[in-house]
Write a structure and sequence with these properties.
The chain is α/β, with parallel strands linked by helices. It has one domain: Alpha-Beta Complex (Spore Coat Polysaccharide Biosynthesis Protein SpsA, Chain A). It contains 16 helices and 14 strands. The strands form five sheets. Strands 3-2-1-4-11 form a five-stranded mixed sheet, sandwiched between helices. Strands 5-14-13 form a three-stranded mixed sheet, covered by helices on one side. The longest helix is centred in the N-terminal third of the chain and has 27 residues, at about 20-45. Residues about 1-15 and about 30-80 have low confidence and may be disordered. Keywords: Glycoprotein, Glycosyltransferase, Membrane, Transferase, Transmembrane, Transmembrane helix.
Length: about 425
C-alpha cells in the first residue's frame, strides 16, 4: 500500500504539463479581479463617466437568468404596457366556399390603416374564388398604398370543431408576427361576423386600456362537457385528407389530465401580442404540449387558448372573461349560434359589444348596422383617417390622412360602458381559479 501511494505521488509531480495552463488561468483570474476593483473605484470616484455597456449588463442582476429569453416571461406584464402611442389591431378574417364577398364586406367594415389584416379562404373554396379574393385585395388602391392587407397563399382545410381551426389561427398569427410586430391585439373574425362600432371607436377606447389585457371567455369545463369533450378521442380528417368531412370518433376514452387544468369558452378572442408570441414560440414548450393534447379534442378552438392562458402564471391574471361579441344561442342546449336578424338589432346595441355573429349573407340587418351604427355611406367605415371630401358623392376615405387621430362616436360610449363593467372589481375576479 505504501509502495502504491509513493509511486502515485511521484507520477503526479513528474508530470508537469499542468503547470503552464494553471499559471495562465491564475494570471487571467487575477487580471479580471483587478480590473473589476479598479473599474468600481473609477465609477464611484469619477464624475460624468458611464460604464461600458457590457459592464452594465453584468451588473444588472446577480444571477444569469437575465441572459436567456425565458427571463422575459418573468418580467411584470404591466411594466410599460400603458403606452402613449395609439394601439394597433391584427385581424384574421376567415371563410369557406362562397364567403369571399362576405369577407370583403367585413374587411371594409373593420378597416383602418393602423391595423394589420390577413384573410384565409379555406381549401373547400374553389381555386377561382381564392384567386378572385387575392386579386381584389391586390388591385385595391388603398390596400396597395398602405400594404396592411394580406391573403394567405396556403389554404387549409378547416373543421370548426377540430384542431385544424387552431392550426390555421396559429399560422395566421405567425405570419402577422413575421410581417409586423407593431400591433398590440390579435382579433379573429369569420365571414359571418360584423362590427357594431367603428375602428375609430375601438382604437380610441383601447388607447386607454393596459396593453396586457386578454379578452377571452373563460369557463370551467364540467358536467356533460367534461364527458363529451375531454374524455373522447377524435380524429380530424382535414389534417390528413384533401376533402372536408366530419370528425372521426374512436372507441377509446381518456382520463382527465392532472398536470394542467382544462378550461373552455368562446372561440372568438382578442389576445395580446405577448401572449400569442408565447403561444407561437412556446419557450417552456407548454403551448406545444397542449397543442398536441388538443389535436384529438372535440371543439378544440373553444379550449386551446383558454387552457394555455389559465395554466400559465405570467398570463392567467390578464384574462378578461368576455369574447367582445354579441351571440344569440339556440335554446336548448346553447350549442350553436342562431342567425341574427332585424329582431335582434336592439339587443345587439344594448349589449355594448363591438362585434356580433352570426349573420346570414346580405341580411338586411347588416345594412341597418352600416347606416345607424357605422355611418357607412361608402366602402369603409368613416374615421378621422379619411382625409378626402364627399363632394359629388366621392369617397372621403379614398384619401389617406393621419391615422393616429381618432373620431370616436356613440359606439365609443357604449364600449366605455362595457369595459367599465368588465374591469370592475365585481366582475374582474380570476376566472382561471
Amino acid at each position: 500500500m505504501r509502495r502504491y501511494v509513493g509511486s502515485h505521488y511521484g507520477r503526479m509531480f513528474s508530470d508537469r504539463k499542468w503547470i503552464i495552463p494553471f499559471f495562465a488561468s491564475l494570471l487571467v483570474s487575477v487580471s479580471l479581479i483587478l480590473t473589476a476593483i479598479l473599474g468600481a473605484y473609477n465609477s464611484s470616484g469619477g464624475v460624468g463617466e458611464q460604464l461600458p455597456l457590457d459592464v452594465v449588463l453584468l451588473n444588472r442582476s446577480e444571477d444569469s437568468s437575465g441572459y436567456f429569453v425565458e427571463s422575459e416571461l418573468e418580467r411584470p406584464l404591466n411594466a410599460g404596457v400603458m403606452k402613449t402611442k395609439a394601439p394597433r389591431f391584427a385581424y384574421l378574417i376567415s371563410g369557406t366556399k362562397g364567403d369571399s364577398h362576405r369577407m370583403m364586406r367585413t374587411l371594409e367594415a373593420v378597416y383602418h390603416p393602423r391595423n394589420q389584416y390577413i384573410l384565409h379562404l379555406d381549401l373547400e373554396a374553389p381555386p377561382r374564388e381564392r384567386l378572385e379574393l387575392a386579386n381584389a385585395v391586390k388591385a385595391d388602391p388603398i390596400f396597395h398604398k398602405v400594404e396592411n392587407v394580406r391573403v394567405m397563399s396556403q389554404s387549409n382545410l378547416v373543421t370548426y370543431k377540430g384542431p385544424t381551426m387552431i392550426a390555421c389561427t396559429l399560422q395566421a398569427i405567425a405570419i402577422l408576427l413575421k410581417e409586423s410586430t407593431e400591433w398590440d391585439w390579435f382579433i379573429n373574425l369569420s365571414a359571418s361576423d360584423y362590427p357594431l362600432v367603428t375602428q375609430d371607436d375601438l382604437l380610441h377606447v383601447f388607447s386607454n386600456l393596459s396593453r396586457d389585457l386578454n379578452f377571452i371567455e373563460i369557463l370551467p369545463i364540467v358536467g356533460w362537457k367534461l364527458n363529451q369533450r375531454a374524455r373522447p378521442i377524435i380524429i380530424d380528417p382535414a389534417l390528413y385528407l384533401s376533402k372536408k368531412s366530419d370528425l372521426a370518433w374512436t372507441t377509446q376514452r381518456r382520463s382527465i389530465p392532472t398536470s394542467f387544468k382544462l378550461f373552455t369558452g368562446s372561440a372568438w378572442v382578442a389576445l395580446t401580442r405577448p401572449f400569442v408570441e408565447y403561444c407561437i414560440w412556446g419557450w417552456d414548450n407548454f403551448p406545444r404540449t397542449l397543442l398536441m393534447y388538443y389535436t384529438n379534442f372535440v371543439s378544440s378552438p373553444e379550449g386551446y387558448f383558454h387552457t394555455v392562458i389559465c395554466n400559465t402564471k405570467e398570463f392567467s391574471h390578464t384574462a378578461i372573461s368576455h369574447d367582445l361579441h354579441y351571440i344569440a344561442w339556440d335554446t336548448p342546449p346553447k350549442q350553436h349560434p342562431r342567425s341574427l336578424t332585424m329582431n335582434d338589432f336592439d339587443k345587439m346595441v344594448k349589449s355594448n359589444a363591438p362585434f356580433a355573429r352570426k349573420f346570414a349573407k346580405d341580411d338586411p340587418v347588416l345594412d341597418r348596422i352600416d347606416k345607424e351604427l357605422l355611418g357607412r355611406t361608402h366602402r369603409f367605415s368613416p374615421g378621422a383617417w379619411c382625409a378626402g371630401t364627399s363632394d359629388g358623392g366621392a369617397d372621403p376615405c379614398s384619401l389617406h390622412g393621419n391615422d393616429t387621430v381618432f373620431s370616436p362616436g356613440r359606439g365609443a360610449e357604449r364600449l366605455h360602458e362595457l369595459f367599465q363593467l368588465l374591469l370592475s372589481e365585481e366582475h374582474r375576479n380570476n376566472k382561471c381559479l
